[in-house]
Amino acid sequence: MENVPEYRALLAVDIARSAGRGDVALRRIRAALWAALREAFARGGIDREACLYQDLGDGVRVTLPAGTPKASLIHPLAHELSVRLAAHNRLAAPPAQVRVRMALHAGDVHIAPDGTVTGRPLEVLARLLDASPVRDALAVRPEATAALIISQHFHEEVVCQGRPGIDPESFRQVGVREKEFTASAWLHVPGAVTPRAAPGEEDAGPAAPDRTAGPESREASKMISEASGHGVIYAVQNGTMHITGTT
């Protein structure tokens, strides 16, 4: 019997800078991540028992049950996961603290009888999770516990639809170039109104005033001061003063 593809939402989570901490620390940060995920799934109304998991060592890939509202993976799940990891980190020693990259995508995948999931959407998910913009987002925001990147497809179907609890202005479009994969994606840092630009993409700030333009091309700034009954003095930017008498 032919294996018919199924449309599923996909989530990947990876612990940032997990290498080099040692086995004891790795077990603790994995336990903290799984505990936070269980709580976030519960708050999001997601049946975690119906999910399909692939352990990534220092993270996990999750294939959500059919019919899972994709919006729930951003709100409340991403926010809840970030909040719970922040609570863990406040009480944890540095080697046991957890910060994560998250990626979201959706598409047609093949699910084998043993629960193995395959398909092109999983490749897209992996490239998103490893993309430089989401890594850089954590690097420039040391206070953040999570950074989320979503595919263009996910953005169009969820963020653009005005779902409650999801602010489109908190997502920034980024370019992803990983191995053979090139695409646009959207970056979100839970708890931040506008994600900070990645290194090399920072806003250059307001343009400097044009010092070469003549007086007629610049708006003169005017200062008005009262002349105690004798008149009003107007001083314009180029130094000229006009005195108007009053009766």
Structure description:
The protein is α+β, with helices and mostly antiparallel strands and 247 residues long. 28% of the residues lie in helices and 28% in strands. The protein has five helices and eleven strands. Strands 1, 2, 3, 4, 5, 6, 7 and 8 form an eight-stranded mixed beta sheet that branches. A three-stranded antiparallel beta sheet has the order 9-10-11, with no helix packed on it. A hairpin with a 5-residue loop joins strand 4 (100-111) and strand 5 (117-118). The longest helix has 21 residues, at 23-43.
Task: Give the tags.
single chain, 247 residues, alpha+beta, 8-stranded mixed sheet, 3-stranded antiparallel sheet, 28% helix, 28% strand, globular
What's the helix and strand layout?
Elements: E1 6-15, H1 23-43, E2 52-55, E3 59-63, H2 71-91, E4 100-111, E5 117-118, H3 120-130, H4 132-140, E6 146-151, H5 152-157, E7 171-178, E8 181-188, E9 223-226, E10 231-235, E11 241-245
Parallel strand pairs: 4-6
Antiparallel strand pairs: 1-3, 1-4, 2-3, 4-5, 6-8, 7-8, 9-10, 10-11
Helix pairs in contact: 1-2
